[in-house]
Design brief:
By secondary structure, this protein is an all-beta fold. It contains no helices and 19 strands.
Length: about 230
């Protein structure tokens, strides 16, 4: 007599994750499965263990506060992400490196207080850096902004007290108030003639800064140089 074989009943997926929330991994090293909650092309929340992670292929937007105050992530590759929401990585105090790839907009306070982030290389796709985007990133030493970016928001790099150098392209037309305030070891910055608007107190407390500029724009605040050394470049 043949014994009947029982058929295992598959476990249901957790109610929080619908079928549309699954993203197929592109290689065995990607940390996907149930780590990411994705709705259409937007990453809503991260539930993983941290460490070095890769955002799943197809995700275009990181929702506001998606990784806020996550103490476990150390490196992140943004892959196809174009928009980083407000406070998306705010307070990720162990985040050391970010690969931006295709980012167009960095939201307000997106990386605020990521205190061990030390080198930011922003992509040529970038158009806007939001208010306080990197404020309080006290470990940040270098920042490179490629041609294409047009706007640097209020307090974008404020209190980055170890920021030694920043490369700013001639595509930037506006820099918000307090953008580099209290960047106390910043030594030199170049303001090209295409900058239309400069806000208040941009270089306040940048005690050793020399500002090279081509010409003063119509909408530059009266105290734009904040008492720093200035050199006009013809």
């Amino acid at each position: 007599m043949f014994q009947s074989r029982s058929t295992a009943v598959p476990k249901e997926a957790p109610s929080l994750i619908e079928k549309k929330d699954y993203v197929q991994p592109q290689n065995k090293n990607e940390n996907i499965s149930l780590d990411f909650v994705v709705n259409d092309n937007e990453l809503i929340r991260y539930n993983g263990a941290g460490g070095s992670i890769v955002i799943p292929t197809g995700v275009k937007t990181i929702k506001d506060k998606a990784f806020k105050n996550n103490k476990n992530i150390t490196n992140i590759k943004l892959s196809e992400v174009q928009i980083i929401g407000n406070y998306a990585f705010d307070g990720c105090e162990n985040l050391r490196a970010v690969t931006f790839d295709n980012v167009i907009v960095i939201g307000n306070s997106a990386f605020e207080d990521c205190c061990v982030l030390d080198d930011v290389k922003l992509p040529k796709s970038l158009r806007k850096i939001g208010n306080s985007a990197f404020e309080g990133c006290v470990g940040l030493r270098k920042a490179s902004i490629l041609k294409g970016c047009t706007s640097i928001g209020n307090s974008a790099f404020e209190k980055c007290r170890n920021l030694e150098s920043i490369k700013m392209p001639d595509s930037v037309t506006e820099i918000g108030g307090s953008a580099f305030r209290k960047c106390s070891v910043l030594r030199r910055i170049f303001l090209h003639k295409g900058i239309i608007s400069l806000g208040d107190s941009i270089f306040d407390d940048c005690v050793d800064l020399t500002i090279e500029y081509q010409r003063i724009g119509q909408n530059w605040n009266n105290d734009w140089n904040c008492g720093c050394n200035i050199q006009e470049v013809k």
